[in-house]
Specification:
By secondary structure, the protein is an alpha/beta fold. The protein is about 45% helix and about 10% strand. It comes from Paenibacillus sp. BIHB 4019.
Length: about 300
């Protein structure tokens, strides 16, 4: 099968909006899809940790992946994960159902293919089983930190890349030397490496990597889109913007699931603060002010630097 390389740029890790009754809010999800695309993203990563995949039933994971793929309508590619079971056989069924939605790639969570005390040979054998079980599916990789953080060695990344079956990797080491080694390992293959840690986005682009797929793109994708589109054409502005984006990663630990929804409300999206993993009641007026002021700073950056 012919696998296309994932387009370079910014790939937001998508939220899953919920109604006040705790159901998936599909009208809000459609708004979110269009808002991301209108803000210049190059692809979408649905059914991931930011999507609260650990709190979605298999039926919901399948439905969300299908909805995002259908409503995106080919404007940008869509990848999705969602194999969260302990049982490998159950994971195969999750992969079968979610990949059948038509997403451009199914993203394998690296900590699901081997236990924490198992080595990379075990991981490789299970990955080979998946590739053989689904010969017509394109895959991705995601170094998800939950339930434990399994980072792939550059050698294992090269093995995956050399199969020709992988197109997308969300790299989560927060280690620039590891990131560079993985980019080099994937050279000449369809696999593009996207960093999750936003202080390194510019360095990743300069080193031939794919770009950014991290938490902050879920609410300020336009800034990352500008950086990944213009880093080589306007290097001075790109460096200034990277400095700002690197510092803004401190927001990641500040009520991410709720604060991000509040930010999107300020952007005009009809989305509730409802989350299945966090309590909206813990989001206080002080936190609202933080988000409001952060958004104004983002607007100032766009108006003074990028326009």
């Amino acid at each position: 099968m012919q696998v296309k390389q994932a387009p370079k740029g910014v790939w937001p890790v998508m939220l899953t909006p919920f109604t006040k009754d705790n159901e998936v809010d599909y009208p809000a999800l459609e708004q979110l899809i269009n808002w991301y695309i209108d803000n210049g993203v190059h692809g979408l990563f649905a059914v991931c940790l930011s999507s609260e995949m650990l709190h979605l039933s298999l039926e919901e994971r399948v439905a969300v992946a299908r909805f995002v793929q259908e409503k995106t309508a080919g404007r940008v590619p869509v990848v999705a994960s969602g194999h969260i079971s302990e049982s490998f056989q159950q994971q195969l069924e999750e992969i079968r159902q979610i990949s059948a939605t038509g997403v451009d790639a199914f993203v394998l969570v690296t900590n699901r293919l081997a236990a924490e005390d198992e080595d990379e040979e075990v991981w490789k054998r299970r990955a080979q089983t998946i590739l053989e079980t689904f010969p017509d599916v394109t895959f991705g990789l995601y170094e998800c930190p939950i339930p434990y953080h399994r980072l792939l060695s550059p050698e294992l990344v090269k093995w995956c890349a050399d199969t020709g079956r992988f197109t997308f990797m969300k790299e989560c080491s927060n280690n620039l030397e590891q990131i560079k080694a993985k980019i080099k390992a994937a050279e000449g293959t369809p696999l593009n490496i996207f960093v999750a840690n936003n202080p390194h986005v510019l360095e990743v682009m300069q080193g031939g990597g794919g770009g950014y797929s991290g938490m902050l793109a879920s609410f300020q994708p336009d800034l990352y889109a500008w950086l990944t589109d213009n880093w080589d054409k306007q290097p001075d502005k790109a460096e200034w913007l990277q400095n700002y984006l690197g510092a803004s990663c401190l927001y990641e630990g500040r009520h991410y699931h709720i604060g991000t929804r509040y930010y999107l409300q300020l952007e005009g999206l009809d989305i509730t603060l409802k989350s299945r993993s966090k309590k909206a009641s813990d989001f206080k007026v002080t936190h609202e002010r933080e988000i409001e002021q952060f958004r104004k700073f983002n607007q100032y950056v766009k108006q003074t630097l990028l326009e």
